[in-house]
Amino acid sequence: MKSLCVYCASSDRLDPKYAAVAEAAGRAIAAQGWALVYGGGKTGLMGAVARGTKAAGGKVIGVIPEFMKARELEFTEADELVSVITMRERKTLMETRADAFLALPGGWGTLEELLEILTLAHLETLHKPIVILNQDGYYDDLLRLFDRIVEERFMHATIRGKYAVARTVEEVFPLIERWQHQPGDAKWYQTR
Questions:
Q1: I want to staple 139 with a disulfide (CB 3.0 to 4.6 A). Which of 8, 90, 134, 145 is the partner?
Q2: Is 0.90 surpassed by the pTM of this model?
Q3: Has residue 189 been placed in a domain?
Q4: pLDDT average, residue stretch 75-101
Q5: 11 and 41 Cβ atoms separated by less than 8 Å
Q6: Residue 183 lies in a domain
């Protein structure tokens, strides 16, 4: 069974439209016959995507640090709940268990996870699909920053082949299925 790693917010203070899309993403994961791999939480978009996956009959694999379990933040209905000590262990385990990655809207933690996985793809140590769900333009400013990074020559334009952008949940799996590894610029590390 393939697994989709989802990065997303854990906050419960969000506009309900974000939870609705996260839940729809969970249902889509189950409908595709994939498992969800995520941060193991029960709150915010994390909880919504897990509940959506479970409600549609899908498998949920949570990876959660002990300090979050101590605060009773884990999704206890997960099919598999893996406890780790550090956030770094959590990210590594999620990365190794995933066949593809999806970033839903989120805060610093989500951005950090997304940028790390994009960096691994850029460095050619990861060859898996990465999709950014740009719900209601949430990631517009980040995508503009990516364009500026290329325009200012901090990175080569080949980075654009390392991720795809979806506007809706319905676009996510077609992008994953069509994804093909795009090698980076072999001279990315050289100064010119």
A1: 134
A2: yes
A3: no
A4: 96
A5: no
A6: no
